[in-house]
Specification:
- This protein folds into 2 domains: 4-53 and 270-403, no CATH class; 98-230, no CATH class.
- With 405 residues, it is an alpha+beta fold.
- The protein has 13 helices and 12 strands.
- A 6-stranded mixed β-barrel has the order 4-5-10-7-9-8. A two-stranded antiparallel ribbon has the order 2-3.
- Strand 8 (175-178) and strand 9 (181-189) form a beta hairpin.
- It starts with a helix and ends with a helix.
- 55% of the residues lie in helices and 18% in strands.
- The chain is elongated and about 105 Å long.
């Protein structure tokens, strides 16, 4: 009785005898698996990139922004209301599930320093800003609570502003004029790069929100509140409680529109992630078609191989080989072709994904489960498309096989 090891050796010898045909047969599976790996890597990388961009905006961030007001029938649109105050932020900070709150006062103005000038966005915030926005300090320090309480004239610069106003020098300790008001630079922010919308996040200046209100705007209302929930599970609860609290504080009765909006960035992240997932599935489905074509190629070649080796099969059966052993040999040949092509395809797919990440600067990530599934699917292709030729070989009549020319 022929053992499984002997059957495997016979199958490999048969494939090696026709190595050129074997390699060409594997090519379809190689291309199919490589295409699947690359497309899955691109889709996974896109989802990771979207998640990183959303998370880079802040730690479990919930944004509260002014809403619309109706004045004599004229609706101002979102941002037109001037009803958000610092006191609203202090009240929100007491909500269970809120870890930090930072008011936001935004002014677009010209800066002058070191013989240079630059127009940028100046944002008034609280010392909790670095935590809420997950934004670190590159040099120097961030402003303190005591500086916020006293509306101190201190500022922290983004890297784009540093490059424009203080090229080649350290800005910490130097003075920058903001609307002709001198501010001392106490620190610089780490580089964040572009946002998902293409905006330069480093083109900014931060100062205490009290300084921005007192020295730049002269008002009492703020442009928004950045709220950080303790974790992602509390975001929906925090969002609901903020809405109820602000409606109570602003005297909004049932049926009236809110003069504020509470936005949850997780919704944006989920929508973007779902879009990336659908795109990845579509690309993988298209790539899987080539893998199917490769399986059909294996079946065709195995049928040709059965025809060519008819006399060999008849001789083996006449010498006592059982049909199960013949079926097993041809099935192993088909599986070796498909899994070998799958392994080469995985290698090429991983290299292709890495090349795309390096040269095209497109995020890509190859999940281990995709590699395992690709190899398993290629083996299944070999079994599925190799079974009919193997069964045909095992069912040959030895007398007719020996007479076959």
């Amino acid at each position: 009785m022929i053992t499984l090891t002997q059957t495997l050796r016979l199958a490999l010898q048969a494939l090696v005898r026709n190595r050129s045909r074997s390699l060409l047969t594997m090519l379809g599976v190689v291309i199919g698996v490589a295409a699947v790996i690359v497309t899955v890597a691109i889709g996974t990388g896109a989802k990771t990139s979207v998640a990183n961009q959303i998370n880079g905006l802040g730690s479990n961030l919930v944004m509260v922004i002014p809403g619309s007001v109706n004045t004599s029938g004229v609706r101002t649109g979102n941002g037109g209301a001037s009803t958000l105050t610092v006191q609203d932020g202090l009240a929100i900070a007491k909500i269970p599930g809120v870890s930090a709150v930072s008011p936001q006062v935004t002014v677009r103005t010209q800066l002058v320093a070191n013989g240079n000038n630059w127009q940028t966005t100046v944002t008034g915030a609280a010392p909790t800003f670095t935590y809420v926005r997950s934004w670190g300090v590159a040099s120097g320090r961030f402003f303190t609570q005591s500086e916020t309480d006293s509306a101190a004239k201190v500022a922290v610069l983004g890297q784009t502003v540093v490059n424009q106003l203080f090229p080649g020098s350290d800005p910490v300790g130097q003075t920058v004029l903001v609307k002709s008001v001198p501010f001392t630079v106490v620190g610089t922010l780490t580089a964040k790069g572009q946002s998902g919308a293409g905006q330069d996040q480093d083109d900014t200046v931060l100062m205490p929100y009290t300084s921005a209100l007192e020295r730049l705007t002269g008002g009492t209302s703020i442009g928004g509140l950045m709220v950080s929930a303790v974790d992602a599970q509390h975001i929906d609860s925090v969002q609901s409680q903020i809405t109820g609290l602000l409606e109570q504080r602003h005297g909004i009765v049932a049926g009236q529109p809110d003069d504020f909006q509470v936005r949850n960035l997780q919704d944006i992240a989920q929508a973007a992630s779902a879009t990336a997932s659908i795109l990845g599935l579509l690309l993988a489905a298209v790539a899987a078609v080539s893998l199917l074509v490769g399986g059909i190629g294996i079946m065709n070649i195995m049928l040709v191989s059965v025809t060519e080796r008819t006399r060999e099969i008849g001789l083996r059966v006449a010498l006592g080989a059982r049909g199960a052993a013949i079926l097993r040999q041809f099935l192993i040949e088909a599986v070796v072709l498909s899994t070998g092509g799958g392994a080469i395809g995985v290698l090429l797919g991983v290299l292709g994904a890495a090349s795309i990440a390096v040269f095209a600067h497109w995020p890509s990530s190859v999940p281990v489960v995709a590699v395992v599934l690709a190899l398993a699917f290629s083996a299944a292709v070999g079994v599925f498309f190799g079974f009919w030729p193997a069964r045909k070989a095992a069912a040959l009549d030895p007398i007719r096989a020996l007479r076959f020319e």
